[in-house]
Amino acid sequence: MTPALSPIYRSEDIRRIEAAAFALSPPAPLMERAGLAAAELIRAQLGSRDRVLVLAGPGNNGGDAFVAARHLRQWWVDTTVVFTGTAGSLPADAKTACEAWRAAGGTVQAQWPDGFAPDVVVDGLFGIGLRRPLDGRHADLVARTAGSRATVIALDVPSGLQADTGQALGTAVRADHTITFIALKPGLLTLDGPDHTGVLHVAALGLDAAATLEPQGFVIDGLSVRIALPNRRRNTHKGDYGDVAIVGGAAGMAGAAWLAGRAALLLGAGRVYVGLADAQAPTLDPLHPELMMRSAADVVNLPRTRVLVVGPGLGQSDPAAALLDAAIARDVPLVLDADALNLVALDADRARRVRERTAGTIATPHPAEAARLLATDTTAVQADRVASSLQLAEKLNAWTVLKGAGSVCAGPDGTWFVNTTGNPGMAAAGMGDVLSGMIGALAAQGASIQEALLAAVHLHGLAGDAVAANHGGLIGVTAGEVATAARLVANKMVYGA
């Protein structure tokens, strides 16, 4: 795996890395390093303001908060600490941090001071160990934080956010900044995480996490696009950039197949064939006459095809199932989207044939489609998006993207990736069709199925961000605009245009 990618670790792996650091001689002073890194970030956010309220919880996260508070006080910052635990019950390092705060002249309060309006609130209530909803005093402090006008800075993980899944456990802190320690956690990047973390900062605390424990999770970055789309040689022709075959477009849904085809065309495929299951559909795309329109039965069997994309607008009829079965039998890379996934979910034998393919398969489900494939419900899928994506990759022997906030890509080898591009304006019809066409284009041009998936997912989000920026907001972002923007963004990334 390329070392340029930022690693992501689940809580249990963070604990292993911490244990290795504590086993050094002398042990690494992780809490002191974490508190100092937090204090430096807090000070940078103060500007001319100087009133800081530190919320210190009953565990090690509270210890980090005490260390940060001590440094702030030493820097003459007006610092108030609310402590929700008891000193005698703190873990050893946190207890030492609390005692050092008191020795430096600091005091603690049990509740948010009446009438106090801080400039910055530091959330040090709970970290990666939280497994239950906040209640009572802690829930009240989170509510008071939300009602303040202060800048909110969370330590490690916003309190109330599950570090491994991104699930907000009832009430949760919405931070303006989160400084996370040692390495990224998946819950900061997917599901509710992006709505709660604000600007994300990583403090490695002097550790090389990847050298201690080989990561399985990574953040997708722009390098993936440059790997999948290298500079073109001058001496080339359209055949060098591959034929993409799109199969879908049942009655009333031709637009889905067209969107996928247009996206493949705009992202550089040499030729794009669109096979429409609706025999009455138009045989010409007036916006992109370069698309070669054929019947779905013809397109699914084209001999020179480098990649098949099946599912956009396909429907779930018997003829649709027959087209899918023909595609599964082809010895070419296959992208399964939309109704193709629903048809696989309905038939265990079809799922087996997908799993036994050797040419490579990519599956692109949204949570409801993933739930059907896993014979569960959407709530269960969303409860642990990383685990769900890995289960799908194993079940289908396919590279899989579980779409949504912080899309999760996973492979049959157990590696997984989280994408951080994109925005809520992309919650609109046709976005998945565009993504499937983009994946097809990259695979046709020579990228491996893993490279094609990671690059397309990242670029898809970047394009959506570009469209939203051009519109001045998130309202009215359309799939067709994203396909067009993807071309511009890709060219800038590859050629610096």
Question: Characteristics of this structure?
Answer:
497 residues; alpha/beta; Rossmann fold; UDP-N-acetylmuramoyl-L-alanine:D-glutamate ligase; 11-stranded mixed β-sheet; 7-stranded parallel β-sheet; 18 strands; elongated
Can you walk through the features of this model?
The chain has 497 residues and is an alpha/beta fold. The protein folds into 2 domains: 7-218, YjeF N-terminal domain (Rossmann fold, 3-Layer(aba) Sandwich), CATH 3.40.50.10260; 223-495, 3-Layer(aba) Sandwich (UDP-N-acetylmuramoyl-L-alanine:D-glutamate ligase), CATH 3.40.1190. It is 42% helix and 15% strand. The chain is built from 19 helices and 18 strands. Strands 1-9-18-17-16-15-14-13-10-11-12 form an 11-stranded mixed sheet, sandwiched between helices. A hairpin with a 5-residue loop joins strand 17 (408-410) and strand 18 (416-418). The longest helix is centred in the last third of the chain and has 23 residues, at 449-471. The radius of gyration is 25 Å and the shape is elongated. The protein starts with 6 loop residues before the first strand and ends with a helix. The model has no long low-confidence stretch (mean pLDDT 96).
- Report low-confidence residues grouped into runs of 5 or more: none
CATH topology term of the largest domain:
UDP-N-acetylmuramoyl-L-alanine:D-glutamate ligase
Q: How many E-type strands?
A: 18
Main sheet summary: 11 strands, mixed
Number of domains: 2
Structural category is alpha/beta
Helix content: 40-55%
The averaged pLDDT comes out at 96
Distance N to C terminus:
29 Å
What portion of the residues fall into strands of 2 or more residues? 15-25%
Shape: elongated
- In the CATH hierarchy, the architecture of the largest domain is 3-Layer(aba) Sandwich
- Strands across the major sheet, in which order? 1-9-18-17-16-15-14-13-10-11-12
